[in-house]
Amino acid sequence: MSYHFDFLAPFDYPAVLIKGVLVTIELIAIGGVLGVAVGIFGAWARTQGPRWLRPLVSAYVELIRNTPFLIQLFFIFFGLPGIGLQIGEMEAAVLAMVINLGAYSCEIIRAGIAAVARGQVEAGLSLAMTRMQIFRHVILPPALQKIWPALSSQVVIVMLGSAVCSQIAVEELAYAANFIQGRNFRSFESYLLSTAIYLLLAIGLRQLLRLIGDRLFGRPAAKEAT
Amino acid sequence: MKFPKILLALAAAATLFSSTARADALEDIVKSGVLKVAVPQDFPPFGSVTSDLKPQGLDIDVATLIAKKMGVKIELVPVTSANRVPYLQTKKVDLIISSLGKNPEREKVIAFSDAYAPFYNGVFGGADQKVSSAADLAGKTVGVTRGAVEDLELTKIAPASATIKRYEDNNGTISAFLSGQVQLVATGNVVAAAIIAKHPPKKPETKFLIKNSPCSIGLNKDEPKLLDKVNAILAQTKKDGELNALSVKWLGLPLPANL
């Protein structure tokens, strides 16, 4: 062993590194919000939606949950231009993340909806609430509260999965690590540093989601989460 | 097999004598009627094997062309990039036509003919891209394979307003160009040949060179007659377009004017 560690080496390209962190945050901020929104819509469509929509959403969920994220990403970025749909790498990355998170969170949220007691819906009906009002005020809040920890985990998984977006030249954190490693060949230091940053980002994201859960559902949600 | 010792000694003496008495390599080739050439078999489009195990490629065609011009038969000797120079030094072959580039280390041990094929890194793009130097890349987006020589060079010479999109490997770079995600790519002319082979809507043309190391034919030192003969054949085939036709056939691009 004659490897000399140089833990300052990954900081040779500070601009690339900082941009990488910011782009990763940007990806999960947009992808996370839109993805969960798609998931809520999907869960509504599969449980309350019009009959014709249900098989379509089921097909979407099965398609996305049973194929690799990397292939979905490549299809959007390299494949779609073949039929004239040209989108940039950032848009492709966000779109792939939204589609992916949408499918997974749809199933998670649907589980929460299934766990809402039938009696609550009937109570809403007896108050002459519309179906939409019942979904928004009676079903969705307790459903989200129940599955919030699982949903948070899925968002973190998607953020970590965004590392593969480096493959289509999105300049996020994994790209920065690869870039630095490719220049100074300091694999150990570069990937150790990016691991540490991903860890911090993941912990930070979990804390943020827990705070959001607290705001939305009050303290009990946080207790369930821990 | 058992040979009487005297026969072995005689045979050894004969080989020794013949090699010391050789006039020059060119004469030997003409006398034996066979030109032995070291060619690659694992480096398309310069040299590879077909599905029925026949060698094919630019280097094979150039070797065949040179043998034809010398009026002798060709004998192809498959080599790797590591053993091609030793094959020549030990006279197992007369020439190396194996995408060999000139460099000072190699020039110490073997001689080189004039260039016969282009081998370079450069920026490629469709005819609609008006780029002829690194400065013209201002405001444009160029695809490149991360960490490749082109990436390192381009990062140095491209203006600050140019965007460099770095893909994981050559396939990523090729796909990005073919799908129109980038209009320009910085890569080797061999990769460009692979793109051209896919018949893209926008055929990549060479915009400018980043690093140039054209292929030359390698031969042993102190063989001036053979060197002159090879150079004469190259000059003639460049003039009458035969070499250019091979370049277009295998690399998809005509020979550069200054080759």
Automatic annotation (TrEMBL), chain A:
Coarse class of the protein's main subcellular location: membrane
Residues in coiled coil: none
TM region positions: 20-45, 66-88, 190-209
Signal sequence range: none
Membrane topology: Multi-pass membrane protein
Short name of one Pfam family: BPD_transp_1
InterPro entries linked to this entry: AA_ABC_transptr_permease_3TM (IPR010065), ArtM/GltK/GlnP/TcyL/YhdX-like (IPR043429), MetI-like (IPR000515), MetI-like_sf (IPR035906)
Protein name: Amino acid ABC transporter permease
Record-annotated ABC transmembrane type-1 domain positions: 21-209
Domain of life: Bacteria
Keyword presence, Iron: no
Key words of the record: Cell membrane, Membrane, Transmembrane, Transmembrane helix, Transport
Organism (species): Collimonas rhizosphaerae
Family label: Belongs to the binding-protein-dependent transport system permease family. HisMQ subfamily.
Taxon lineage: Bacteria, Pseudomonadati, Pseudomonadota, Betaproteobacteria, Burkholderiales
Subcellular location(s) of the protein: Cell inner membrane; Cell membrane
